């Protein structure tokens, strides 16, 4: 079997999406063209594609469950993953009901009946919703992403990404793959005073890097503990994948990409952007927000990492 990076799920979802949406189009086209001869052929094609779409949805869900167990993710990604799964289960149920309804309509020459038509619309909505949250998993939360592009190394004709600006530096904004300590979505907006104070902070001072590395290593240790606790009862393949994640977390190495002052609510703080490198060459970024108190101790700012180690 050829190696599919990171797994088969991104490939198999297309066998649910394309045939289902094509079936919806063909069913309604057949109804619109009835009783012309072409409508009967479109109806047959619609039924075939509907069955293929339902089978494809089953394969997509099975591969998606495997992906959920084997692809590393943080809390925000996990929450979105659960929503994606809920949409997938609901869509699969609607597709199964649509296949049954189409079976009862099998003596109908053109298109589908009222029940089938309503279910087709629901299936199309389900496919769209499932696909939306699946896209969020990858493009917002970075699930399965094994490499970030070096944006400064590519040029589009006269547009130079490397010379005009630092590649995709967003200053105080959170990086796209922020697996560190996020600020809650409903947290108060940073105050202007805190932001001004944060701009003047000296963040990369002696001893800071070692302390920040300890924060990241603590997160990794918590992740290892979480993975180890969930390994019991897993099948052979899932257990092997979990073992790989544990080994990767333990063998990861850290580097620093940037230090910058930022305000966390009303607290002026520093943010360290840490590059985590795994044994297979994969990189990911984590951010650590911290401040130095009056006694010189380095204190982490924001929500404490949970049992997942994120």
Description:
There is one protein chain. The protein has helices at 9-12, 14-33, 37-70, 75-104, 114-139, 161-164, 192-199, 208-231, 236-251; strands at residues 155-156, 159-160, 253-264, 267-277, 283-292, 298-300. The chain is an alpha+beta fold and 310 residues long. It has 2 domains: 9-139; 177-300, Nuclear Transport Factor 2, Chain: A (Roll), CATH 3.10.450. The longest helix is centred in the first third of the chain and has 34 residues, at 37-70. The relative contact order is 0.11.
Please give the radius of gyration in angstroms. 25 Å
Q: What coarse outline follows from CA principal-axis ratios?
A: elongated
- Helices and strands, in order, run as HHHHHEEHHHHEEEE
Number of helices: 9
- The neighbouring-strand order within the major sheet is 3-4-5-6
Q: Biggest sheet, in brief?
A: 4 strands, antiparallel
Q: What value does the average pLDDT take? A: 79
Counting helices, strands and paired strands, the structural category is alpha+beta
User: What fraction, in percent, of the residue positions are helical?
Assistant: 40-55%
Number of domains: 2
Could you tell me the number of beta strands?
6
N- to C-terminal separation? 33 Å
Low-pLDDT residue intervals, each spanning 5 or more residues = 158-188, 304-310
| Quaternary structure of the protein | single chain
Proportion in β-strands: 5-15%
């Amino acid at each position: 079997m050829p190696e599919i990076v990171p797994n088969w799920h991104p490939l198999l979802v297309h066998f649910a999406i394309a045939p289902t949406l094509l079936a919806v189009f063909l069913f309604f086209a057949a109804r619109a063209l009835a009783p012309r001869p072409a409508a009967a052929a479109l109806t047959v094609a619609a039924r075939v594609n509907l069955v293929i779409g339902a089978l494809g949805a089953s394969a997509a869900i099975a591969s998606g469950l495997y992906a959920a167990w084997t692809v590393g993710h943080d809390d925000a990604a996990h929450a979105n993953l659960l929503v994606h799964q809920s949409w997938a289960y609901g869509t699969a149920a609607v597709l199964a009901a649509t296949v049954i309804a189409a079976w009862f309509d099998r003596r109908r020459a053109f298109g589908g009946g009222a029940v089938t038509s309503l279910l087709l619309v629901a299936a199309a909505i389900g496919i769209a919703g499932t696909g939306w949250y699946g896209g969020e998993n990858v493009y917002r939360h970075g699930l399965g992403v094994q490499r970030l592009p070096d944006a400064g190394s590519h040029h589009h004709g006269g547009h130079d990404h490397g010379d005009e600006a630092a590649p995709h530096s967003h200053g105080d904004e959170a990086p796209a793959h922020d697996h560190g300590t996020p600020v809650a979505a409903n947290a108060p907006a940073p105050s202007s005073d805190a932001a001004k104070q944060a701009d003047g902070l000296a963040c990369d001072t002696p001893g800071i890097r070692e302390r920040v590395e300890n924060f990241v290593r603590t997160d990794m240790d918590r992740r290892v503990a979480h993975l180890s606790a969930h390994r019991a009862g897993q099948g052979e393949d899932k257990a092997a994948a979990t073992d790989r994640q544990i080994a990767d977390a333990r063998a990861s190495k850290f580097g620093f990409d940037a230090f910058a002052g930022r305000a966390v609510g009303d607290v002026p703080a520093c943010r360290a952007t840490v590059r985590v490198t795994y044994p297979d060459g994969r990189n990911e970024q984590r951010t650590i927000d911290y401040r130095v108190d009056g006694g010189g101790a380095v204190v982490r700012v924001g929500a404490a990492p949970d049992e997942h180690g994120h």
